[in-house]
Amino acid sequence: MLTEKELRTQAAAAVTAVHETTPLAGSITNFVTIDFVANAQLAVGGSAAMVYLPDEGTALAIAGQSMYINVGTLLPVHERTVPAAMVQLHRSAKPWVLDPVAVGLGELRTKLLSTARNCPPAIIRGNASEIIALAGLWGLNGGSAMSQVRGVDSTDTVRTALDAAVSLARFTGGAVAVSGAEDLITDGTCALYCNGGSPMMERITGCGCSLGGVIAVYAAVVSPLIAAFCGTQLII
Ligand SMILES: Nc1ncnc2c1ncn2[C@@H]1O[C@H](COP(=O)(O)OP(=O)(O)O)[C@@H](O)[C@H]1O
Ligand SMILES: Cc1ncsc1CCOP(=O)(O)O
Hints:
Layout (H helix, E strand, L loop, with lengths): L3 H18 L2 E5 L5 H10 L3 E4 L3 H10 L2 E5 L7 H14 L4 E4 L7 H9 L7 E5 H10 L24 H11 L2 E5 L2 E5 L4 E5 L11 H13 L4 H12 L1
Parallel strand pairs: 1-2, 1-3, 3-4, 4-5, 5-6
Antiparallel strand pairs: 6-7, 7-8
Helix pairs in contact: 1-9, 2-8, 3-4, 6-7, 8-9
4-methyl-5-hydroxyethylthiazole phosphate binds next to helix 8.
């Protein structure tokens, strides 16, 4: 288990590493918040590139140091782009962040998020309802297929997603970041709660996606748990 001092030291080293190396964290993400995500990634010192096409997703998975995959607004092309990128990332053992926006909505989203189980992401980032529903979709403890994801918003509190988050982290061997009025980060053995931010962050779109994109930047240089911690601390 990390001590607070070790956590702070590793987080500080990750911030420095990002500034020194400008890691490329490519994204396949929704078109509602796409520029918000890119700007957040650039603001923390990373490099951003957003793509839609299958060959470009695969090329970016090869070229980048990490990747951010968000299923917020799916188009028919994503049926090929998303699995191709996931498989490439898995093959090259590169860290990537999955943002299971509105999991449970529609056939393609369900199919893509089920496929992600076979190419596990280093970090899963979502609100409480998304984390509970994804664990349900993957048949893991603490999950519920009945979790009511209301569009992209959460109807559950962060603490009710603890079991689901722990199960997902143990399954992937990475970390899970659950956002809300307080944020929870776990690697399946420890749970960190982070406070900050503002209730106004619920009243604009893109804070969650930006958090995911920023975590992907840190995932390029540090372990999943510390990457999730760095991203969360910088967004709130
Ligand atoms: N009520 C709140 N008070 C403080 N911070 C919040 C609140 N709601 C959300 N945030 C912050 O906004 C960011 C995005 O979280 P959230 O709104 O839960 O994501 P999503 O857009 O995926 O639902 C997180 O960093 C979280 O800490
Ligand atoms: C509103 C909306 N609809 C599909 S994706 C999206 C953006 C969600 O962004 P965030 O989860 O960061 O608020």
